[in-house]
UniProtKB/TrEMBL annotation:
Gene3D superfamilies: 3.40.50.2300, lambda repressor-like DNA-binding domains. It comes from the Bacteria. This is LacI family transcription regulator. Keywords: DNA-binding, Transcription, Transcription regulation.
Length: 337
């Protein structure tokens, strides 16, 4: 008959529980070195063979994923949009029992161990995409449409959102509409990112013969970028300043609002403002900013679900485009006019 743990316990005079924990190398067990040696020696002498675990007892290794954020930690603090996406990924990963390894500013040297999948958040050049591909075949992009390159992508429907914002302004009889938008490049400087909101804005207003290129101002996606762009608009346009502005994100919109207030231009009475992303920033300024709400946490969770489906079976790439919602606040409330 095969030797059992009970046989070893009787031969050593040690409890069955202690024998089991010693042979399973339980690091939390406090037992003397001599007792450990006696148990292992007796097990070897009696030719003890550990029984394989049943399928119910076998716990699979948690799958590890790399969450590659193209922003640095400090930059993420300034742009809560990408932070919210990351938090959505991490929360949903916990639900699916995935171990997440954070990588900031696309610095893959931070990865010191193999991963089963990658969720890449932000914008990436062709070279960066191929480098990520060398890590794993299970790759999902968030806020970057890499579907044509053969990868799962989770993006936002910018075009419809912009059309809806323009419709709000036109309903308010504001036909002179300005734009403040941003430009960025990937962390390796190889790809310039064209703001899809600017493209949709131009197409939408051109179709209605309302597009005025002199009413559009380019900057970076920061509070100071929005402030500088609105100051430029005030300087160059003077009394011809549009009665409505669409601003590409909340940090820029808060900067633009500051510039208008410094110039003593009333919002929304003289200039109506509509922002994009609807982070907490939109509610912590006065007047509160109307903003396009983007389902950032859902974007992150959708990416996790796409990755999990890739773990289960091979399939063609998928492109998921999520809708938005207009959140109306005081920066477009014209009832006081």
């Amino acid at each position: 008959m095969a030797t059992t743990l009970k046989d070893i316990a009787q031969a050593t005079g040690v409890s069955l529980t202690t024998v089991s924990r010693v042979l399973n190398r339980d690091p939390s067990l406090s037992v003397g070195t001599a007792t450990r040696k006696r148990i292992f020696a007796t097990a070897a002498q009696l030719n003890y063979q550990k029984m394989p675990a049943s399928p119910e007892e076998i716990k699979p290794r948690p799958q590890k994923i790399a969450l590659v954020q193209w922003y640095s930690k400090s930059r993420e603090q300034d742009d809560l949009y990408y932070m919210a996406i990351r938090m959505g990924i991490e929360q949903c990963s916990q639900q699916h029992q995935l171990e997440v390894i954070r990588v900031f500013q696309n610095n893959l040297t931070q990865l010191t161990q193999p991963v089963d999948g990658v969720i890449a958040v932000g914008k990436f050049s062709a070279d960066q995409v191929q480098l990520l591909r060398t890590l794993t075949a299970n790759l999902v992009f968030v806020d970057d449409d890499q579907f044509a390159a053969g990868f799962d992508s989770v993006i936002t429907d910018f075009k419809l959102a912009v059309q809806q914002v323009v419709a709000v302004f036109l309903k308010q009889q504001r036909r002179d509409i300005g734009l403040i938008y941003g430009t960025e490049t990937t962390t390796d400087g190889q790809r310039q990112i064209h703001d899809p909101r600017q493209i949709a804005f131009k197409e939408t207003l051109t179709a209605q013969q309302l597009y005025r290129p002199e009413f559009t101002f380019q900057s970076d996606f920061t509070n100071q970028g929005g402030y500088r762009a609105m100051q430029q608009a005030l300087t160059t346009l003077g009394d011809q300043l549009p009665h409505a502005f669409f601003v590409a994100n909340d940090p820029m919109a808060t900067g633009a609002l500051k510039a208008l207030q410094k110039a003593q231009i009333a919002v929304p009475q003289r200039v109506s403002l509509f922002s994009f992303n609807d982070t907490v920033l939109a509610k912590y300024v006065y007047p509160e900013l109307s903003s396009v709400h983007v389902a950032t946490e859902l974007m992150g969770c959708t990416a996790v679900k796409l990755l999990c489906s890739r773990f289960q079976k091979k399939r063609p790439p998928q492109r998921v485009e999520l809708g938005t919602q207009l959140i109306m606040r005081a920066s477009t409330n014209l009832e006081s006019e």
